[in-house]
Amino acid sequence: MYRLSPAGVTRLADGVAIQRGDPAWPDYLAWLASGGVPEAMPTTIPPISTDPVPLSVTSFQARAALYMAGLLDDAEAAIAEAHPLSRIAWEHANVYRRDSPTLISIGQQLGLSEADMDELFKTAASITA
Hints:
The protein is of the alpha+beta class and 129 residues long. It is built from 6 helices and 5 strands, in the order βββαβαααβαα.
């Protein structure tokens, strides 16, 4: 099955966008010729997030958010066992970026999902010293 899209169609089985000239376009045309009818293009646009994830927070904000979530001690224990450069970054960085390999690693060690990390960053950004 397929769904119409602005640039062509989307194959519903795997979410692949297909447009005229793509290698999969003849498969779509054959499906149409055999009586297939694509789903209509969605008429609603998904809402844009009004609460974006901040790209960075201060060291204080990050630690405060971890403390408020009951995770500061666990995070510090994880960083104590990390690579020396990660420990230096944790101890001396003024700003922590959401895409920081150090923070991603700490989050994974704490069992946090991407959504959990995003929420921590949102919380951190709301904290003022």
